[in-house]
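Task: sequence design from structure.
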């Protein structure tokens, strides 16, 4: 994570990290947008530059209130050779990278339901979407957290709580409105700019600013939500969990997590959370029975609930308390074999301040052919993440090296990485996310739509050489 730094403030220019935009240019932008353009000289600066995961230091924040505002901001960035950072829910680590123009999309958050077609503004959050769709008896498999933005999660793929029933968020996407690097507005779908549509479904925010997402939603009257608490060695429980999911109906998606007390995002300890599509508690209990009957497993809750109510909330970052480092990563496992289970549990045991997470895949996730989206490893059956928190004073160099070596051994068992669960801003990380062929295709599309690479504040796909 990046610590916020103060920018220089001069009458002539706003300068951050070696980039500058003249005051005259910013004043011109103010005349072109109906929303606000906020810089370090404005009293609302500290509010404008703060986002969910931290506090940034861009050269300007454009609080867009229309698609035309987005176009104006992008045109300015392109003319001034500045990167664009798109802020929706504000959970991305990229918001902390100094410089560039931040486009705050929060005002573009409309949700329109037309039968099962749902049109969602690029600044909406998943909690608001889930609540609105519940009024219509509908749902989309999205992320786990209500304040996460629709834009960032979708463009990165979107492994949601009902991924086995309906696939990734991008598998439910049927169209999008995009502001390109040239400042043009294009409608994108399988029949309109199909290569660009392919790239948007898992290629990240590399290709423009999506101002509207069009999804096909699914009928849903509620879910069964279960939490099973684990005590003792979790290895035998995870093995049974794996075996249950091998034959379980698609209606069931499960998440295993083991987190320390310091993590505010989940209850401490090892738990299994299960989501069953529909309100049939008896059916869900029957499928989970082999787990419930195990020694050391306690049912903390198992009940029918409305889908919006199971989305969790995460506290906003405190600017005065930078997030600790994270030694680890994530990968997509074709098989959760005993070796993978042993390595994941051993990682958690060796690092008291660490987290391990597993989510079941398969089902609808695997119905999509690998070539149909950039998202990696459609034959994976589990998503796995592990990481040790590098809290000052807790780990020495030897412990850091050991944690990294342990993670590398886990990652070697998988294929590809899920960018939305990655806090690294290392430019090389993108090569871990996609196969060489997929990355080459994304780079060619990038060259067509953003040859100047102004949309680089994401896991960046560099435009292919001409």
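Answer:
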């Amino acid at each position: 994570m990046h610590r916020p730094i103060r920018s220089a403030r001069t009458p002539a220019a706003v300068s951050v990290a070696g980039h500058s935009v003249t005051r005259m240019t910013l004043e011109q932008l103010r005349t072109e947008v109906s929303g606000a353009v906020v810089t370090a000289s404005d009293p609302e600066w500290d509010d404008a530059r703060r986002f969910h995961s931290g506090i940034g230091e861009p050269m300007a924040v454009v609080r867009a209130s229309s698609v035309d505002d987005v176009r104006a901001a992008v045109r300015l960035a392109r003319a001034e050779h500045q990167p664009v950072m798109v802020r929706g829910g504000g959970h991305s680590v990229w918001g902390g990278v100094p410089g560039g123009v931040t486009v705050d999309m929060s005002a573009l958050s409309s949700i329109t339901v037309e039968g099962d077609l749902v049109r969602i503004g690029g600044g909406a959050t998943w909690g608001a979407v889930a609540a609105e769709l519940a009024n219509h008896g509908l749902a989309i498999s999205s992320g786990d957290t209500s304040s996460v933005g629709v834009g960032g999660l979708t463009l990165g793929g979107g492994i949601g709580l009902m991924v086995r029933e309906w696939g990734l968020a991008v598998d439910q996407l049927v169209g999008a409105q995009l502001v390109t690097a040239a400042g043009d507005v294009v409608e994108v779908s399988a029949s309109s700019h199909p290569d660009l549509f392919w790239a948007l479904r898992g290629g990240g925010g590399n290709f423009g600013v999506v101002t509207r997402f069009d999804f096909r939603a699914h009928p849903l009257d509620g879910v069964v939500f279960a939490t099973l608490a684990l005590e003792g060695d979790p290895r035998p429980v995870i093995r049974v969990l794996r075996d249950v999911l091998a034959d379980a109906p698609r209606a069931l998606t499960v998440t295993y997590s083991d987190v320390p007390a310091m993590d505010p995002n989940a209850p401490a300890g090892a738990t299994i959370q299960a989501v069953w599509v529909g309100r049939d508690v008896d059916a869900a209990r029957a499928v989970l029975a082999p787990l419930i009957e195990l020694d050391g497993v306690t049912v903390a809750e198992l009940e029918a609930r409305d889908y919006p109510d199971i989305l969790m909330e995460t506290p906003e970052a405190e600017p005065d308390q930078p997030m600790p480092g994270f030694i680890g990563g994530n990968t997509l496992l074709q098989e959760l074999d005993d070796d993978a289970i042993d390595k994941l549990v051993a990682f958690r045991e060796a690092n008291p301040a660490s987290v391990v997470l597993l989510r079941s895949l398969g089902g609808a996730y695997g119905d999509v052919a690998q070539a149909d989206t950039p998202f990696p490893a459609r034959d994976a059956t589990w998503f796995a993440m592990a990481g040790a928190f590098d809290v000052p004073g807790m780990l020495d160099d030897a412990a850091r090296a050991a944690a990294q070596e342990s993670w590398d051994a886990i990652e070697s068992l998988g294929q590809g990485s899920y960018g939305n669960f990655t806090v690294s801003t290392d430019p090389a990380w993108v090569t871990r996310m996609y196969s060489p062929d997929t990355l080459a295709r994304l780079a060619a599309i990038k060259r067509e739509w953003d040859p100047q690479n102004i949309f680089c504040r994401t896991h960046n796909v560099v435009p292919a050489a001409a």
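The domain at 223-423 is CATH 3.40.462.20 (Vanillyl-alcohol Oxidase; Chain A, domain 3).
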